[in-house]
Design goal:
The complex is a heterodimer of chains A (399) and B (65). Chain A is of the alpha/beta class and 399 residues long. Chain A contains 14 helices and ten strands. Helix content of chain B is 23%, strand content 25%. Classes of the chains: A alpha/beta (399), B alpha+beta (65). The A-B interface holds A 172-176, 315-319, 321-322, 350, 354-356 and B 6-13, 28-32, 34, 59. The structure holds iron/sulfur cluster (2 copies). Chain B: Pfam families: Fer4_15.
Chain lengths: 399, 65
Amino acid sequence: MITVEEIRVIGEARVLAGLDQGRLDLQRHLLTHGDQPQLTRADYTNLSEAVGLRGRGGAAFPVALKLQDLPARGVEAVVVNGSESEPVSRKDRLLLTQSPHLVLDGAVGLAHALGAPHVLIAVHDPAAALSVREALMERDDGLAVEVRETPGRFVAGEARAVLSALEGGLAVPPGRRVLPTRKGYHRRPTFLSNVETFAQLAVLARLGSRGFSSTGLISEPGTQLLTVDGAVQWPGVIEAPTGVPLDTVLQYAGAEPGPVLLGGYHGRWLEQTDGVTLQRPEVSAGIILALGPATCPLGEVTRVAQWLSSQSAGQCGPCVFGLAALVDDFARLTVGDPQGWHDAHRHLGLVPGRGACAHPDGTARFLTSALEVFDDDVQRHLSGRGCGRPVLGLLGGAR
Amino acid sequence: MNKLEIDWTRCDGHGLCAGLLPDDVLLDEWGFPVLRGREITAGELPDARRAVLACPALALRLNNR
Ligand code: SF4
Ligand code: SF4
């Protein structure tokens, strides 16, 4: 559970505004943020384009392009993807439990502008679901807003898997690549995005593009939510301007020195943090994991690989067999078997692009960058002596 | 532009496609197809269509875009 002490702000608090005093019920929400202005579809498109707003779920797709891809009429639903399936990420749960009205303002405001009759909020965290239901009882939005609980598995958070679950099907991605903007909820045009995207839209609607652009990068102004965890003194969620130096965020969180995983379990390892700034697409869903100096990197990576392999939806052969093989390769590599190293390299070439979703690609990216950044450790393990450090389980993963 | 595509949620690794289109499909160590990814020329289209129809899982597709 996120407590108030785990929220930190670098610079100006926007989507986290007011939370230093606890959860924002409707009255406190209105005192903090004011009313949501009624904007048109063209307003939303222009504003999103002017500030280069990108989805905050990981894929970082430009919001304006998603809006432009929707047909002129017949938009069925606005879907808030709150499944937050990256186990380390906590920013979306934080918004839904502490500032639900801001997210609802963003979703409902956009639904009105698009003429969409439904707003669906997909969550798997019971506390988040309860908070949104409580918030809905305080407001009257004049359209159908529904909270739906969806499974919490990793791949179940993929956009098309969420749509499938909302329609009562299995929470797995379909085999064909369809765009939710064309064939989404019940195969009708749908605007789907991540929780934070809607909170940012609500802020953008209030501030306008100039106000919104008073902080952050020129190319992608505004703020971003980051979840920081691992070898840090103060894990939690940080709101910071886009383009903030990674080192500043690590300092705020009291991180120990060492390699950093940027972008979560589908992300990339960084050996060096100086000079790195945080923006999309690199920062993905905003997850920053500090490894610190005390744990065995290969052991940690293997545990995450085990977890990722267990999360494959079991649909696609190369993903199921490939990820299982990679777990085995990394385990052998860690105990010094050179064949494990060779097999890992071969298998890393065999999984990307060979599944119905990006899970094999993301897993391969994570493991490939681990082999690069931890090459010294790999050599030490292959020499049979290991690195002499225990596996502390700082990254989560298999328990 | 014609290219082969696989619906990975359907393919169960029969490997039939690799036998019918040896120039375009290889099999990995688990028996699942690896596509060469090149364009299917007009002359090769009939063979490619036959392979698509032969796939017992209806997983192999020809995509033209
Ligand atoms: S690629 Fe893997 S995780 Fe994605 S749908 Fe296929 S089996 Fe599931
Ligand atoms: S014939 Fe069909 S099911 Fe068999 S390997 Fe080829 S694509 Fe997969």
